[in-house]
Amino acid sequence: MIDRHQLLEWANVYGNYYGVPRDEVISALSKGANTIVKVDVQGAATIKKILPQAVFIFLMPPSMEALGRRLKRRHSESSRDLALRLERAKEEMKSLPLFHYVITSHQNKLDEVVCHIDAIVAAEKCRVKPRTVRP
Asked: Which residue from 63, 84, 85, 88 has the highest number of Cβ atoms inside 10 Å of its Cβ?
C-alpha cells in the first residue's frame, strides 16, 4: 500500500508499520461523514498538510508517571523500549500547538474520552463558519 500510494499517511513506529488507507478516508469525507483516524503526532502533522481544515484532537495522559504505569502494566515493552516510549511521549507533548483540542485520557475511563470527542464533534457542527473538509 505504501509503494502504491494508497495511504493518506504512514509511519514505522517502534518497528511496526501503521497507516491510514487513503480511499476509505476520501470516500467517507466525500459523503460528508464524520471521519476519525487515530494517528501519532507525526501522522497528524502529515494529515494537516493534506487536509488543513480537519479537526485535530490530542489524547494526553494525566501525567508522565501515569503513562509509565499504564505502559508497564501492559508488559509489552522491555525496560529500554519503555524508556524510549516515555521520552518520545515527552517530545510529542511539544506538538500540542498543532492540535485544536486536548483530552486527558484517564485509565479505565474510555467512556469519558468518548463523551469529550462527541462534544467536540457536536460543537464543530454548530460553528457559525463550519470547517469544510474536502478530500
From this structure: 85
Q: Measured between alpha carbons, how far is 5 from 114 in angstroms, rounded to an integer?
A: 31
| Percent of the chain at pLDDT exceeding 70 | 98
Question: pTM to 2 decimals?
Answer: 0.85
Cα(7)–Cα(116) distance, integer angstroms:
28
For the chain, the straight-line distance linking the first and the last C-alpha, in angstroms and rounded, comes to: 19
Q: In the prediction, which pLDDT does 3 show?
A: 93
φ/ψ of residue 84, rounded to 5: -65, -45
Nine-digit cell string for 66: 501515569
At how many degrees (to 10) do helices 79-93 and 64-74 cross? 150
Q: How far apart are CA 107 and CA 7, in angstroms?
A: 31
* Domains of the chain: residue spans and CATH: 34-125 (3.40.50.300)
> Residues with Cβ < 8 Å from 58, sequence gap 6 or more?
95, 96, 98, 99, 101, 102, 103
Beta bridge partners of 16: 13
Residue linked to cell 470527542: 117
